[in-house]
Amino acid sequence: MDAKAFRQLGAAELEQKLHDTRDELFKLKLRASVAQLENPARIRKLRREIAVGETVRGESLRKQIASEVEPAP
Asked: Which of 69, 70, 53, 68 is nearest to 11 (CA)?
């Protein structure tokens, strides 16, 4: 997924997607420690996907906080 796709998700969906991706990464790392993977580049791709998701989550949180704390004129 790219950042655009993450931004289209709701807060709960984004959290679920990040959880699922982290779970998949954990399982892949576990398999990599036991046997050779068919596609070892998948680990790197998942790590980057998590980073993009966390960035989008942080952006949305900052945007939400900024809208709640608007300066009084």
From this structure: 53
Ranges in the chain, pLDDT < 50: none
Least Cα distance to 1 among 52, 73, 72, 54 occurs for 52
pTM for this prediction: 0.86
Number of domains within the chain: 1
Across 3-18, b (16+ Cβ under 10 Å) vs e yields eeebeebeeeebeebb
Residue 73 within a domain: no
Distance between CA 17 and CA 6 in Å, rounded?
Answer: 9
